[in-house]
Amino acid sequence: xxxxxxxxxxxxxxxxxxxxxxxxxxxxxxxxxxxxxxxxxxxxxxxxxxxxxxxxxxxxxxxxxxxxxxxxxxxxxxxxxxxxxxxxxxxxxxxxxxxxxxxxxxxxxxxxxxxxxxxxxxxxxxxxxxxxxxxxxxxxxxxxxxxxxxxxxxxxxxxxxxxxxxxxxxxxxxxxxxxxxxxxxxxxxxxxxxxxxxxxxxxxxxxxxxxxxxxxxxxxxxxxxxxxxxxxxxxxxxxxxxxxxxxxxxxxxxxxxxxxxxxxxxxxxxxxxxxxxxxxxxxxxxxxxxxxxxxxxxxxxxx
Length: 303
Fold this sequence. Notes:
Elements: H1 3-13, H2 16-33, H3 42-70, H4 72-77, H5 93-114, H6 117-138, H7 145-149, H8 155-165, H9 170-193, H10 195-201, H11 206-209, H12 212-230, H13 239-265, H14 271-295
């Protein structure tokens, strides 16, 4: 294998597209943490953001590479994942394991030395939870796998907050909750599309073990909770975030209801439209957090 192909294969283990999404939520969390002069400013803040993104990317890459090692048998069966490096035999499992572990250690040391050890510890906890709890325990045993396992994907906002403040305060936990409640509608929509893949691999994703109506009903329920949860950030944001949270949340809920109505009526539905919308929704919502914090308008509930 040529060096270029080898590099591409190892990059494939890290699932770079997912890393991009994780980093998108980290920066707004850092901006919100620094709002009102609570953190560094200027070049110090710029360096802190870069350091946190580098460490966070390495931590996520570590978790994904280790996940690929454990799930190599599943990936080989599923059409959606059959082109991943381990499934195609492009990287030896032992090499992938070492690669993932080295990335994990490097991310912890980097974050500890460039930000603080709380952020480093949270990154290690996220890796461990994703690999040991979600991948090894939940994924193959329960339809609630993505609900609880998705908590690992919520950690970047907490890590970003900790990198700025050295603490974990309630707004960080609210942002954690936004992503936590966003994850089931996001992933179940994808799993509805690839139900046959998960069934063939023996993975009990909710669409495999429940009726379409039951799945879409839960998507609606989680969408409502997510939209309501976003409003908990109003005490630390201005009207900019409020408008995006309310309008975006109602639009997302409306789309979830539309999916459910189609399923109940027996019409052919396209769950991937909700999946793609969920990606855009999360990006826009957190972009609003970043803009809101950068503009620095008075918070809505300051009195």
